[in-house]
Specification:
Blueprint (H helix, E strand, L loop, with lengths): L2 E3 L8 H5 L5 E3 L4 E3 L9 H5 L5 E3 L5 H13 L4
Antiparallel strand pairs: 1-4, 2-3
Length: 77
């Protein structure tokens, strides 16, 4: 289960700095996680200062779709 970032994200980049596989990308509105790259280590979940990250079992379908779509068109963070 990959992690998912919701719209509470403040684009601080803390998640990108802690991710061991560089799965984070910066979209126009927030950070997103590439589900194909994420190894579900949970490091980003623990580090997010606004609790904007959860695993996909707890995420809304909209957040899952947004992360997947945006991660494909965004440059790496």
């Amino acid at each position: 289960m990959p992690s998912v970032i919701n719209d509470s994200c403040i684009k601080c980049g803390t998640c990108a700095g802690i991710c061991p596989v560089s799965a984070m990308h910066l979209s126009d509105s927030q950070m997103v996680i590439d589900p194909d790259t994420c190894i579900d280590c949970g490091a980003c979940i623990a580090e997010c200062p606004v609790s904007a990250i959860c695993n996909d079992a707890e995420a809304t379908p909209e957040a899952i779709s947004f992360n997947a779509e945006q991660s494909k068109i965004c440059p790496s963070a």
